């Protein structure tokens, strides 16, 4: 493998001054990279200076760029251009990066000419105020570079010295120095005594006032002057205000130095303001001073000032949420006023990849030529590009707002072996921490140097490497909140996570250097810490194992490519067992995160009473976890057993589960270890025992009797480390639970703040969830599901499963979960217990009653079909196939169910097995039930009954209880007292006659195949139908006979309605009372229906109720009057004859009901037509007396009352005496009064009908009427 240091130049160390901004140095210029964007920025900056020089007006520009964009280096190079640095111009004249500025430099020289530019670089992070820094730097420049030039008077003390000179001239030297030495003539003061002791002479005084401000001599003379003449005036080092100071230094620079323009480079100005962001007065005051650099109340500045102010962030971004709206708006107003006067030169972040490539990662060394080195790096880069899962994650960092370094292949290639994800994280960390000493280039260089002896060409520098540089050993942020977060990250790593990693790997601090597994764990933890500090970086979002591997690509060596994620999940999950700050998500590729807190929430566990981790509590906790894993719900039942229902092969089998220490005879006596009946008993032991070991359990089992269906599940013991975690979980459960005083956590941590308690609760809940999950994995090892790890369980050579049942083969439990293992285990027990075939599939649930009924119905239909098969409806096919096919209980082929001796395996099997027991013609159900379980199949009773019912259908057997035949409609009706045997069957010829007659008579589909099932069905259908209609048929005969005179019916005839009704009634009566199906078949075959056909007879009894209802509603008195009137009235005769013709025919030919209604209406209309007009009594008909009498009776029956005007009521009553209607006696008396106006015949008919109903009902009616017109 090729070392990266052989392909690019990597220094062996990084000095403190290697990245100090000093562009005059040749080495720095030699490595400076000028991009196209930087060239444009230099042109804009130089144009700003040119404009100031040519117009005489001050100018200002913000140099805006994120961390690492090169603001400081930009200002340094600009300074050297303006200063006509010959070294820089020498570099610009020869090939190289700086030569890209040749045209720009040449353009600047054209207007610079002989003009002199004074540049001052102000590192604002060291400033007390804007004026202090500017004036300090100017004085420093003058004293160092022009010692012969007078120092400008920029201190307040300078004015005091000038005033003192005037006093000296007025007083004279003797008096002036005397007063100066005596402290102004006062005595007793310390200053006066010091002045007198030291004395002031002309020589000392002149030397003191000439000394620089801030020196001891200068301070002494100022104190003496203020004490003697100007009490409390100033201190020696105080400057004049900014306006005055700028006027002084620009005049001084112009007059004494010949300067044409003063250029100020204010580096880190906004970071300096941000350090005092909590002091709003300071920020507003100092921020507003930028305006004074451009404008002045004193117009006497002889030369312009050009200010370049570096800005990494807008000041408003530094404000926390605690800053109020008023203060925020005031600051915004100041910044708006400044930004409106300053221009902006944007230094793009996209410069960084090109700069890094040319400055740090340029291919070619003394060992390998540039072209060859570049090809080797291209090959290595391609191997990363081929890993799509890694590639996408490493490029995602470019989406971070202030690290827009690009997200394409070319950008990544320029940064290799760095990634866009690393650079984005680097920028975010540096901005958060406000790093001042480490530029992006410096940090990246340090990473190369640190890994110089280990980096190979295929290695990427992982994101985790930034933690040491910028968090663990970097500067802490100035902002309090961020400072606390970074400090917490340091402390969490050093005091908790790193010790846990050492313990997890079983090494000491001294052994970490060459320990690969520790190095991997350490990188994972550091990456998670970076995520906690700068979660806004896209590359750090949702840190799954896959993403963690990508961000530290090359750090993990997996035995199988692509298995790296599994290794990471295992390592971090194990760490989370003891690191509550580490939160593990769910799923095969869970999201990991670290929750940083200044509070040690683990101290809450110390508040739990000791008895909450006693043996009984831990046993209960393990039992609860295991039960949850096994899927055992509910509390313990009788004697501490947990019943478990396993649905298997169509039956719900029961397994009784009990937890306990097998070795302990006191808590687990022998009786508790033996199974009852055919249900298995599973004894589950605990994975720890303070007073015994697993061999004691096996020794106890050896003393028990064999043959019981008992299975023992004896787990390996957990290690002390795991038992500690069990105890921790018990404590957490206690804290999160409720006691007699309510919330335990609130009660035990009452001295904690509410916020800390709430956060503590969240922490405990997360810890609880993780511990349950990881302990579940440890328990799976203990109970033999997965390979035991030494860190989790204490394995031995004894099995985890053993039994009291001889012959039962046992292997280790298998399954991904305890639930799966439990299901597999119970399945193996049941499979061994019930080896018989055929059977339903293992996972088949018990069939429902509806399922069983459906199968039985299709079996009945198939057995009664001549083809022994039946089409199955689409919605029923799945049910029929699911039950019948695996049981070989008939067969569903495509859409057709076939039931034959071939498809019904049970027919031959049960007959053969019964024959061995001497059962040939009859088969007791209890015997057949026994045969179903030879060998044992584990069928439940309903499924056994279904098999027996289908067997009976296919074999044409009938059900008997004793000598009585029993009809079975549902499998649940089959009991052990029943017997199956062949029943008596009707003569085939009789059967052939009976079936079509029964179909025609009763309208039901009956099988034509003469088998017991069909015979039984025939009997059931015929009996049910006969019983249903016999009462109506008999009542119809009675009603027809009662009105035979009016209807013209004669008894004794063999034709007509009355004859058919009589034959049908007698047949239905006989059929409904017969219990022998064979007899019923004969009765139907030979039934006497008179002259009626089967269809006519069927119609007669089916519509009997309909005809009876019509007969009951007829007004027979009215029809009887028509019979009498028919002797002399042709119209009445027609009415009666039409009715009698219909009544004579069978119902199938003529429906009697409408004929009755028609005749009744016609009779009523006839009588109404003959009612006499008012005042004119009816004329008696001529003829014989009988006719006259009938006519009079009919008229009386129709009218029933006389009608007259008021004038001749009596005469009319005498003239007509109608025959009254036959009244029905009634005890009721009606006093209702009705008045109606009638103007037509229809209205009168309605009145007559109402009167008739009243009279028939037995009421006396008084009638009066009046003719209105």
From TrEMBL:
Residues 1224-1233 have a biased composition (Polar residues). Residues 1181-1191 have a biased composition (Low complexity). Residues 1170-1191, 1212-1238 are annotated as: Disordered. Residues 850-952 form the ATPase PglY 5th domain. It comes from the Bacteria. Residues 997-1172 form the ATPase PglY C-terminal domain. This is Phage resistance protein. It comes from Nocardia terpenica.
């Amino acid at each position: 493998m090729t070392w990266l240091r052989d392909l690019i130049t990597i220094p062996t160390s990084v000095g403190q001054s290697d990245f100090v901004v000093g562009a005059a140095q040749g080495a720095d210029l030699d490595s400076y990279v000028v991009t196209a964007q930087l060239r444009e920025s230099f042109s804009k900056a130089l144009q700003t200076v040119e404009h100031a020089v040519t117009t005489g007006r001050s100018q200002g520009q913000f140099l805006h760029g994120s961390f690492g964009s090169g603001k400081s280096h930009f200002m340094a190079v600009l300074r050297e251009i303006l200063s006509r640095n010959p070294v820089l111009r020498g570099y610009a004249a020869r090939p190289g990066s700086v030569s890209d500025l040749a045209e720009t430099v040449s353009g600047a020289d054209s207007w610079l000419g002989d003009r002199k530019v004074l540049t001052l670089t102000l590192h604002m992070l060291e400033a007390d105020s804007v004026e202090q820094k500017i004036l300090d730097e100017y004085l420093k420049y003058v004293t160092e570079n022009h010692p012969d030039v007078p120092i400008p008077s920029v201190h307040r003390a300078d004015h005091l010295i000038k005033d003192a000179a005037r006093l000296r001239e007025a007083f004279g030297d003797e008096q002036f120095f005397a007063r100066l030495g005596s402290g102004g003539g006062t005595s007793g003061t310390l200053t006066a005594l010091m002045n007198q002791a030291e004395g002031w002479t002309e020589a000392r005084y002149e030397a003191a006032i000439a000394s620089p401000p801030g020196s001891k001599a200068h301070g002494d003379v100022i104190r003496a002057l203020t004490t003697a003449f100007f009490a409390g005036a100033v201190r020696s080092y105080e400057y004049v205000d900014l306006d005055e100071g700028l006027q002084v230094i620009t005049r001084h620079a112009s007059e004494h130095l010949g300067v044409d323009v003063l250029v100020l480079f204010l580096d880190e100005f906004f970071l300096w303001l941000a350090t005092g962001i909590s002091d709003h007065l300071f920020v507003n005051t100092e921020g507003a001073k930028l305006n004074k650099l451009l404008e002045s109340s004193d117009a006497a500045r002889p030369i312009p000032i050009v200010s370049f102010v570096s800005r990494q962030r807008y000041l408003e971004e530094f404000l926390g949420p605690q800053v109020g709206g008023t203060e925020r708006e005031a600051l915004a107003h100041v910044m708006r006023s400044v930004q409106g006067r300053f221009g902006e030169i944007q230094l793009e972040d996209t410069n960084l990849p090109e700069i890094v490539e040319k400055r740090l990662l340029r291919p070619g060394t003394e060992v390998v030529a540039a072209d060859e080195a570049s090809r080797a790096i291209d090959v290595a880069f391609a191997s990363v590009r081929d890993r799509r899962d890694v590639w996408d994650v490493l490029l995602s960092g470019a989406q971070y707002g202030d690290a827009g370094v690009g997200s394409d292949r070319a950008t990544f290639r320029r940064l290799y072996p760095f990634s866009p994800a690393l650079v984005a994280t680097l920028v975010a960390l540096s901005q958060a921490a406000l790093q001042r000493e480490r530029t992006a280039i410096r940090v990246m260089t340090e990473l190369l140097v640190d890994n110089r002896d280990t980096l190979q060409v295929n290695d990427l520098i992982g994101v985790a490497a930034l933690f040491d540089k910028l968090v663990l050993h970097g500067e802490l942020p100035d902002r309090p909140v961020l400072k606390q977060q970074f400090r917490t990250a340091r402390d969490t790593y050093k005091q908790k996570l790193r010790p846990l990693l050492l313990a997890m790997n079983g090494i000491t601090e001294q052994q970490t250097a060459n320990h690969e597994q520790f190095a991997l764990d350490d990188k994972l933890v550091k990456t998670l810490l970076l995520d906690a500090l700068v979660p806004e970086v896209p590359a750090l979002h949702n840190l799954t194992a896959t993403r963690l591997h990508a961000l530290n690509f090359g750090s993990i060596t997996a035995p199988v490519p692509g298995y790296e994620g599994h290794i990471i999940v295992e390592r971090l999950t194990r760490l989370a067992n003891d690191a509550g700050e580490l939160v593990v998500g769910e799923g095969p590729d869970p999201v990991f995160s670290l929750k940083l807190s200044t509070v040690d929430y683990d101290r809450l566990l110390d508040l739990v009473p000791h008895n909450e981790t006693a043996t009984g509590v831990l046993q209960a906790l393990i039992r609860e976890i295991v039960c949850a894993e096994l899927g055992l719900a509910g509390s313990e039942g009788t004697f501490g057993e947990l019943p478990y229902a396993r649905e298997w092969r169509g039956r719900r089998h029961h397994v009784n589960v009990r937890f306990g220490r097998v070795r302990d005879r006191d808590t687990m006596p022998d009786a508790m270890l033996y199974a009852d009946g055919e249900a298995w008993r599973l004894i589950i032991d605990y994975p720890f025992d303070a007073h015994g070991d697993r061999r004691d359990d096996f020794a106890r089992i050896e003393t028990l009797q064999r043959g019981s269906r008992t299975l023992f599940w004896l787990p390996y013991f957990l290690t002390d480390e795991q038992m500690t975690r069990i105890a921790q979980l018990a404590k957490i459960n206690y804290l999160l639970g409720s006691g007699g005083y309510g919330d335990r956590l609130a009660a035990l941590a009452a001295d904690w703040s509410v916020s800390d308690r709430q956060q503590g609760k969240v922490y405990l809940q997360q810890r609880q969830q993780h511990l349950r999950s990881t302990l579940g994995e440890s328990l799976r090892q203990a109970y033999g599901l997965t390979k035991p790890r030494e860190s989790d369980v204490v394995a031995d050579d004894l099995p985890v499963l053993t039994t009291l049942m001889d012959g039962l083969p046992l292997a280790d439990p298998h399954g991904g979960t305890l639930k799966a293992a439990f299901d597999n285990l119970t399945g193996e027990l049941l499979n061994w217990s019930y080896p018989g075939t055929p059977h339903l599939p293992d996972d088949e649930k018990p069939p429902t009653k509806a399922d069983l009924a459906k199968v039985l119905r299709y079996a009945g239909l198939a057995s009664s079909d001549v083809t022994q098969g039946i089409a199955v409806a689409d919605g029923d096919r799945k049910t029929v196939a699911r039950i019948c096919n695996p049981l070989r209980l008939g067969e569903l082929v495509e859409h057709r169910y076939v039931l034959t001796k071939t498809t019904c395996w049970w027919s031959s099997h049960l007959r053969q097995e019964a024959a061995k027991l001497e059962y040939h013609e009859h088969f007791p159900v209890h015997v057949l039930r026994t045969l179903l379980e030879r060998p044992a199949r584990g069928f439940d009773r309903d499924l056994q009954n279904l098999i027996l019912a289908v067997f009976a259908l296919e074999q044409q057997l009938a059900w008997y209880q004793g000598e009585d035949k029993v009809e079975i409609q549902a499998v649940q009706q089959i009991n052990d007292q029943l017997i199956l045997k062949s029943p008596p069957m009707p003569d085939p010829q009789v059967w052939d006659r009976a079936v079509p007659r029964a179909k025609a008579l009763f309208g039901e589909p009956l099988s034509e195949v003469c088998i017991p099932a069909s015979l039984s069905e025939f009997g059931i259908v015929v009996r049910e139908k006969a019983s249903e209609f016999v009462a109506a048929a008999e009542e119809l005969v009675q009603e027809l006979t009662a009105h035979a005179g009016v209807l013209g019916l004669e008894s004794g005839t063999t034709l007509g309605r009355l004859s058919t009704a009589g034959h049908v009634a007698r047949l239905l009566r006989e059929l409904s009372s017969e219990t022998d199906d064979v007899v019923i078949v004969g009765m139907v075959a030979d039934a006497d229906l008179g002259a009626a056909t089967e269809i006519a007879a069927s119609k007669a009894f089916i519509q009997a109720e309909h005809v009876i209802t019509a007969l009951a509603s007829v007004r027979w008195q009215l029809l009887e009057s028509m019979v009498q009137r028919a002797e002399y009235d042709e119209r009445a005769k027609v009415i009666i004859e039409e009715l009698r013709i219909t009544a004579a025919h069978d119902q199938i030919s003529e429906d009697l009901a409408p004929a009755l209604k028609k005749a009744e209406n016609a009779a009523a209309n006839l009588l109404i037509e003959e009612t006499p007009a008012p005042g004119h009594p009816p004329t008696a008909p001529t003829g014989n007396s009988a006719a006259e009498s009938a006519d009079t009776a009919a008229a009386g029956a129709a009218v029933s009352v006389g009608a007259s005007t008021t004038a001749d009521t009596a005469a009319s009553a005498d003239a007509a005496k109608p025959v009254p209607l036959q009244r029905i006696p009634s005890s009721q008396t009606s006093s209702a009064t009705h008045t109606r106006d009638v103007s037509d015949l229809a209205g009168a008919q309605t009145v007559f009908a109402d009167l008739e109903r009243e009279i028939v009902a037995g009421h006396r009616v008084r009638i009066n009427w009046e003719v209105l017109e």
